[in-house]
Amino acid sequence: MKRSIPYQIEPLKALQEFTSARIAIGRVGTSIPVKQLLEFKLAHAHARDAVYSELDINNLTTVLKVFNLPVLQLQSKVSYRRQYLQRPDMGRRLNDASVISVNDHCTETAVAIIIADGLSATAVNENAFGLLQILIPQLIAADFKLAPISLVEQGRVAIGDDIGYGLKAKLSLVLIGERPGLSSPDSLGAYLTYNPKPNLTDEMRNCVSNIRPDGLSYLKAANKIFYLISEAFKRKLSGVDLKDNAGLLGDD
């Protein structure tokens, strides 16, 4: 008679209280339990879905009207999703029609807010507006002049350089869907660049990551971003030379 292999409890299970990462999930023999295996496959499917999700342009345009700012609907040089994944360089630049649209709204401003789908439009659809509801009033109260809000399909982080430069903004703030993890297909990232212009590289930016209800809260993220923007204008720089000395600001 074949002996059954007992389910073994991981001694580190208490650590699950502090993270949603897959740790201490137990094991059956040399494998993991069926329930945890199925949960892993489901999470993998959610991550794949997030990569191929689409920006909800119509809804975002509607809800963003509350800020009384023009909303530009823009597109990178990418034509379809597979091309976006295979040609990151094309996702960093605007197509010709979008360049014209940006130039038509060119005026001296302080901050240009760019919302791009990135690798998870799901993250943007679910989290961008909640963050901006807190951040934009902070910027306005501090007398930062805001450029039109840009909604960008098939965009990468660096597309904010083209847009910020075209809008004559002193600083670009890109809100973008981050690469989905197996516990976070809805993670929003924020990248800010002082004096944006084409062909900058990543050391010129500051990043606030994992913005979502189960990660960094909207309030803490908005306070962190506002602090970094304020410091960028004081020091007239961003990136590796702009240090974050504030810690996490605000309470949930």
Which bin fits the share of residues in helices?
Answer: 25-40%
CATH architecture of the largest domain: 3-Layer(aba) Sandwich
Order of helices and strands: EEHHEHHEHEHEEEH
CATH superfamily of the largest domain: Ethanolamine ammonia-lyase light chain (EutC)
Instruction: Give the number of DSSP strands.
Output: 8
Distance between the termini: 57 Å
Write a structural description:
- Keywords: Bacterial microcompartment, Cobalamin, Cobalt, Lyase.
- Adenosylcob(III)alamin binds at residues 157, 178, 207.
- Its EC number is 4.3.1.7.
- Helix 5 (121-141) packs across helix 7.
- The termini are far apart.
- This protein has helices at 34-51, 57-64, 81-86, 96-104, 121-141, 159-166, 218-235; strands at 7-8, 27-28, 71-75, 109-116, 149-153, 169-177, 188-194, 205-211.
- It folds into two domains: 7-51, no CATH class; 57-241, Ethanolamine ammonia-lyase light chain (EutC) (Rossmann fold, 3-Layer(aba) Sandwich), CATH 3.40.50.11240.
- Residues 248-252 have low confidence and may be disordered.
- By secondary structure, the chain is of the alpha/beta class.
Question: Short summary of the structure?
Answer:
This is Ethanolamine ammonia-lyase small subunit. With 252 residues, the protein is of the alpha/beta class. It contains seven helices and eight strands; from the N terminus they run ββααβααβαβαβββα.
Keywords:
252 residues; globular; single chain; EutC_N; bacterial microcompartment; alpha/beta; 35% helix; 2 domains
